[in-house]
């Protein structure tokens, strides 16, 4: 029986613990910076702008021939259909493959 440090020294391998500690600190700092820069309101605004451009009837101002409520309902349906197992083809009926 031996410790990992003893096995590493016996095989002539370098001690990478200091390098690992520095790398983990750098990764943690980058992750914290990314999380601090994330603004939920800005993310939703960009998603809604993309949805408005992709849906007929919604228009740039959020209103159009079909109205904003109908366009939002269509956007929600397409969004949730992706998670219901239907993918781009829409919802699948229970029991159908």
Q: What can be said about this structure in brief?
A:
The protein is mainly α and 97 residues long.
Q: Which secondary structure elements does this structure contain, and how are they paired or packed?
A:
Layout lengths: L3 H8 L5 H21 L2 H15 L13 H16 L14
Provide the β-strand percentage band.
Answer: under 5%
Q: What is the number of E strands?
A: 0
What oligomeric state is this? single chain
The coarse overall form would be: elongated
- Stretches where pLDDT is under 50 for at least 5 consecutive residues are none
Structural class: mainly alpha
Order of helices and strands: HHHH
Amino-to-carboxy terminus distance: 56 Å
The main β sheet shows up as: none
Count of DSSP-assigned helices = 4
What would you report as the Rg, rounded to the nearest angstrom?
A: 26 Å
Please tell me the overall pLDDT: 75
Structure, explained:
The chain is mainly α. 62% of the residues lie in helices and 0% in strands. The chain is built from 4 helices and no strands. It has helices at residues 4-11, 17-37, 40-54, 68-83.
